Amino acid sequence: MEASVPGRARRGRRRTRAAGSPLSRAAVLLFLSAFLVRVTASVGYLVRLPRSFRLTKDSVKIVGSTNFPVKVYVMLHQKSPHVLCVTQRLRNAELIDPSFQWHGPKGKVISENSTTQITSTGSLVFQNFQERMSGIYTCSLEYKPTVEETVKRLHLKYIIYAYREPHYYYQFTARYHAPPCNSIYNISFEKKLLQILSKLVLDLSCEISLLKSECHHVKMQKAGLQNELFFTFSVSSLDTGKGPKPCTDHNCESSRRLAKAKNLIERFFNQQVEALGRRAEPLPEIYYIEGTLQMVWINRCFPGYGMNDMQHPKCPECCGTVTSRTNPTGTGRSCRSEGYKFSLLCSLSCIE
């Protein structure tokens, strides 16, 4: 391609100077005149090249479709992708005198605050996305393909969903041989065990919660009745993005920290079994019963949110919701009026 010729010439120029043969003024003028001639001959092609450099790699851009509404997923309190008011076909085409107009759930969208912006090229961008910003957005585009042609009009529809990450945590149960259920030692042991477990995962920015503690009489085969403590704990991750020193490293991801916490907890109970196996003295009155530790991975959405991989195949694990409560097809059917709980599934049934 002709566009690559000047690049090769510049590289050859650097090599010439490195060899110690300075260019004469005539040679420089000859080189520049040849370069200008080539640019003039292919100016229609070269003018378009710089436009691609405006695209930023760190921003996601979503184009519309004239055939169906495009779904956009925005995490709560985060910056949204750039929602473009063009189709894929028009994205890289020249548009003469384009004009863009956005309408949302509350009417015409104007860049009047720091949370909603419309760029000079008609892209819709949200900062610190809130649940109330969810809903149906339409963009009207008017443009001319060429100066001689008439104005063309295009209407694009987007469904923008607010979502948040599911509440991930581990729930685990363990059983301990215990003194009589009314013993005060059981209460003090419960507090001590919770304290030890909490300290175990403290450096991972995780917390342990005691969900349930019960004492039962258990009939053992050939051993009669014995007392056992049944504990149910949860281990969840704390928000590392807040505070004076937010953590942004990939090791700070919630799932990674929870996996490490799980390993530490399993090691803690295994060490108790090993310590009892090496013990020469009689067993203590309260001790961990080998093999009773059970850990389960819990993946739940917060109230008002839900998952629907059938309706959202591109975001199956998103806990999402839409604040619009009316059917956008014009029937005005309300989720609440039909007795549904207003959640993600209800919102989708109204929209689609």
Automatic annotation (TrEMBL):
Protein name as annotated: Zona pellucida-binding protein 1 isoform X3
Domain Ig-like: start-end pairs: 50-152
Recorded family membership: Belongs to the zona pellucida-binding protein Sp38 family.
Compartments in which it is found: Cytoplasmic vesicle, Secretory vesicle, Acrosome; Secreted
A GO CC term assigned to this protein in UniProt: zona pellucida receptor complex
Lineage: Eukaryota, Metazoa, Chordata, Craniata, Vertebrata
Gene this protein is translated from: ZPBP
Organism (species): Sapajus apella (Brown-capped capuchin)
GO biological process: acrosome assembly; binding of sperm to zona pellucida
InterPro entries reported in the protein's UniProt record: Ig-like_dom, Ig-like_dom_sf, Ig-like_fold, Sp38-bd, ZPBP1/2_C, ZPBP1/2_N
Keyword Magnesium listed: no
Domain of life: Eukaryota
PROSITE patterns documented for this protein: IG_LIKE
Keywords assigned: Cytoplasmic vesicle, Glycoprotein, Secreted
